[in-house]
Amino acid sequence: MSQTVPILFSIIVPVYNRPDEIADLLASLAAQTDKGFETVIVEDGSTVRCEEQCEAYKDKARVKYYYKDNEGRSIARNYGIVRADGDFFIFVDSDCILPPNYIEKLRNSLKENPSDCFGGPDAAHESFSDTQKAINYAMTSFLTTGGIRGGKVSMEKFTPRTFNMGYSRKVYEKVGGFREMFSEDIDMSTRIRLAGFSITLYPDVEVFHKRRVDFKKFWRQVHVFGMSRITLQLLYPGSMKTVHWLPALFVIGAVAMIIGAFFCKWVLVPLLIYIIALWIWGIISTKSLKIGTMGVGASMVQLTGYGTGFIRAYVWKIILRHGRDINDEIERRRGK
Questions:
Q1: What is the DSSP secondary structure assignment for residue 165, as one 8-state letter?
Q2: Running DSSP on this structure, what letter comes out for residue 48?
């Protein structure tokens, strides 16, 4: 197929046993109004491959498909970067769907407000399940995460995440690729900022992120997020902000209030007020009584999962001092 539009963006996606999700993602890429991109799919040792889906969209979404042994999503992304031709590398997760004007909006945003590194928010597509929509509310609400996942209001500097993140080839040439670790996107964003590059939120360049399909898997995911925040603090002393402590403080406070309720039921009032606020705001933001109500449960999962992971890692790695060799641990994961 002749190329009439020069490639500017390389969309790089690591995938592991997600052929159905990749099919949805590729369909959304094939529908882009701006065709100035290529798609680099890196199959990271999957036992259920997506090669057939990639072949079906090879021309429609300019797909390059690669299969490699399983080494982790960061190494898979780096593998894709080396084989990409774009001037900018865009990273999305395999469980994302892109609006048809995603590339068009991104190109316009870069023209109007140039940046070395950038990212956008995530949202719930109308086709997602009620559980996925409730989890999306829990992960994006200011009342639960402080707006740190790409919203318009935030309690810390914007940090792009790999469900919707990009940076220039110039950044890669200076900073290098992702490190194989949990919260590797926060680590990468931190390294990019420390190297003196600009990082910008493009609030209109959003993706639809499916997230976990049930609360049990969601709890395990955010528990790891809480643990990885301590790893990041060890790597970058001083990087931990007040917002990162809030879930742990919530867990400690909620436990204290529940115990205190055996002696005085009024101590539960602050917790009940917070839950009611979550419920009301959930109904307003999701425009659904059912999803808003489920969002309260998802928020409790998000806060307790992250909070307990944070506390667990803080005690083990900082108080008991088992995190002193964190850089060596990361290098071992890379096989060095």
A1: E
A2: S
How many residues in the chain?
A: 336
Spatial CA neighbour of 191 closest among 202, 200, 199, 182:
199
Kindly tell me the burial class for residue 227, based on how many C-beta atoms sit within 10 Å of its own C-beta (0-12, 13-18, 19 or more): buried
Percent helix / strand / coil, the chain, rounded to 5: 50, 10, 35
> For position 335, what pLDDT does the model report?
46
Question: In b/e form, how buried is each residue of 121-144, taking b as 16+ CB within 10 angstroms?
Answer: bbbbbeebeebbbbbbbbbbbebb
103 vs 287: CA distance, rounded Å = 28
The one-letter amino acid code at 301 reads V
Q: Note whether 211 and 95 are within 8 A (CB).
A: yes
State the Cα angle at 89 between 86 and 93, rounded to 5°: 130
Would you call 3 helix, strand, or coil by DSSP?
Answer: coil
How far apart CA 124 and CA 136 sit, in angstroms, is 6
pLDDT in the model for residue 3: 52
Low-confidence ranges of the chain (pLDDT < 50): 1-2, 150, 153, 155, 333, 335-336
Q: Which of 29, 37, 32 is nearest to 8 (CA)?
A: 37
3-state secondary structure of 43: strand
At which residue do the structure tokens 């108080």 appear? 319
Two tokens at 289? 């009584």
pTM: 0.85
Q: What is the spatial distance between Cα 332 and Cα 71, in angstroms, rounded to a whole number?
A: 12
Please list, in sequence order, all residues whose beta carbon lies within 8 angstroms of the beta carbon of residue 13, skipping any fewer than 6 positions away. Answer: 22, 25, 39, 40, 41, 42, 80, 91, 92, 93, 94
